[in-house]
Amino acid sequence: MDAKNEDNRSKKLSDLAQRLRLCQPYLSVNDFAATNVGSYDRPPRAQTDRRAAVLICIFEGDNCELRVILTQRSSTLSSHSGEVALPGGKMEEGDRDEVATALREANEEIGLDPSLVDVVSILKPFSMKNGMVVVPVIGLLFDKIAFHPTLNKAEVEVVFDAPLEMFLKDENRREVEREWMGEKYLLHYFDYEAEGRKFVIFALTAGILIETASMVYQQSPAFVEMKPNFWIKPANKC
């Protein structure tokens, strides 16, 4: 790729970083640093075992499209084995905040050096039926070539990436209707193939990526979301 295209790619991600920092549906990373994470309704520190964070790591592909890094969990795990997920996991006592959790987990799971990730935004948390609160952290990977995946095979079988825009399209998508506390909602399933392997991206991971894509591309998905009522609804998109 020539220098001109490299400059264009860098500008695209830089512009996105600037816009996402200005559009905070939850709380900016600067607010985290300035307030030591004290300005939003985080539960007491003793309850960190009920909080988790995931990293939505976006980079620019060879065709200048925005792509997101995903993993397929190990088939030997006791929960959610073999499912597609964003890098992430439960908050640990030593983690300063959810940003630290997301970066630590991505480093442990797939060898993503935190210094390569420019964290630009944090989405409103998703509350699960089991009481777990998941905070999505958006980070940009400007230098994809510098990322050399090193998988923790006990947790991750495969690391791959997918175009972020696909989570706004009705292509290769199906849905299943469920009900919770008398209200119906939809679980979305996105079928995707990479390097001869077939993946299904669904449930919470799909919901987070639909929300992220809507904010990044500043448009609504081409289908009805019908979110679960136990999820905390994100603030208005920019």
From TrEMBL:
Cofactor(s) named in the record: Mn(2+); Mg(2+)
GO biological process: acyl-CoA metabolic process; coenzyme A biosynthetic process; coenzyme A catabolic process
Gene coding for it: LOC110785813
CDD domains with a match to the protein in the record: NUDIX_CoAse_Nudt7 (cd03426)
One GO CC annotation: cytoplasm
PANTHER family: NUDIX HYDROLASE, NUDIX HYDROLASE 11
Annotated keywords: Hydrolase, Magnesium, Manganese, Metal-binding
Gene3D superfamilies listed in its UniProt record: Nucleoside Triphosphate Pyrophosphohydrolase
Entry keyword Magnesium: yes
Protein's recorded name: Nudix hydrolase 11
